[in-house]
Specification:
disordered N terminus; 11 helices; single chain; about 290 residues; methyltransferase; alpha/beta; metal-binding; magnesium ion binding; cytoplasm; TIM Barrel; eight-stranded parallel barrel
């Protein structure tokens, strides 16, 4: 009797460029830390529903962010400030249900973690238990150290977010670049404090590229840039910006990789025209018996 062939070894690559290269197991924190050590860059995209999550997961995007940017891109709010935990938990559950390999990170929304570490833990616990998130992200530098420490101690992975923090836009005076001049020192101090508190990665938003490069060099954990230049370990974009779904002027740091707004608009017009002309539904779209 011939011997049963040994099973093929499990693919350990945490990322890929398409379905054939996609990872065969869930992306975990050690994968991202190893990529930092090897100098391998990776991409993060936002996702707010099952279809975007499924598509990006199959494309090999290793980390998906259920961002409070849903306020601007799902709910039609002017800012992220009105977003609540109840707004985001169902979106998070949809993304985690569809993403088979990507790590799913949930944003903690404004007012849901700043009052105390205990409030942060209660909010993060909802995302982990109800949303099935794999990690959470919160905004703020050194003042958030107690919150981060408690979450990590409770077993909840945390990504920090420094530089421009959208939840604080009213204090910051609008969408302005942070970390210029003397602000670069604060950026570094905040990054180091969050790393020491236990964050496994740090988002830097709208900061000068040279300052972001210095922070990236100084940290042992990955940096994720958005408007922070090319030297970060990873990059993140809102998927509707990346795919050209949103109309109007895009931020300087956005590169559009498609024009879905035009594509969807043309499809809707063609559908409406077919209905008006009586050519849809045709025989092949109808039940004849």
């Amino acid at each position: 009797m011939s011997e049963t062939p040994a099973p093929a070894p499990e693919t350990t690559a945490p990322y890929g460029t398409g379905a054939q290269a996609a990872p065969q197991r869930r992306v975990r924190i050690p994968h991202l830390l190893t990529m930092k050590e090897k100098g391998e860059k990776w991409a993060m995209l936002t996702a707010y529903d099952m279809y975007s999550a499924e598509i990006f997961d199959e494309a090999g995007i290793p980390v998906l962010l259920v961002g409070d940017s849903a306020g601007n891109n799902v709910y039609g709010f002017e800012t992220t400030v009105p977003v609540t935990v109840d707004h985001l938990v169902p979106l998070c559950r949809a993304v985690t249900s569809a993403a088979k390999r990507a790590m799913v990170v949930a944003d903690l929304p404004f007012g849901a973690y700043q009052s105390s570490p205990e409030q942060a833990l209660a909010t993060a616990t909802r995302f982990m238990k109800e949303g099935l998130a794999h990690a959470v992200k919160l905004e703020g530098g050194a003042p958030m150290v107690p919150e981060v420490e408690l979450l990590v101690r409770a077993g909840i992975p945390v990504i920090g977010h420094i530089g421009f923090t959208p939840q604080s836009e009213h204090v910051l005076g609008g969408y302005k670049v942070q970390g210029r001049g003397a602000g670069a020192e604060k950026l570094m101090d905040d990054a180091l404090a969050l790393q020491d508190a236990g964050c496994f990665a740090i988002v830097m938003e709208m900061v000068p590229a040279p300052a972001a490069a210095e922070v990236t060099k100084a940290l042992r954990i990955p940096t994720v840039g958005i408007g922070a230049g090319p030297d970060c370990d990873a990059q993140v974009l809102v998927w509707q910006d990346m795919a050209g779904l949103r109309g109007g002027r895009a931020p300087r740091f956005v590169k559009k990789y498609a024009d879905l707004r035009t594509t969807l608009g043309d499809a809707a017009k063609a559908y409406a025209a077919d209905v008006a002309a009586g050519t849809f539904p045709a025989e092949e779209h109808s039940f004849l018996e």
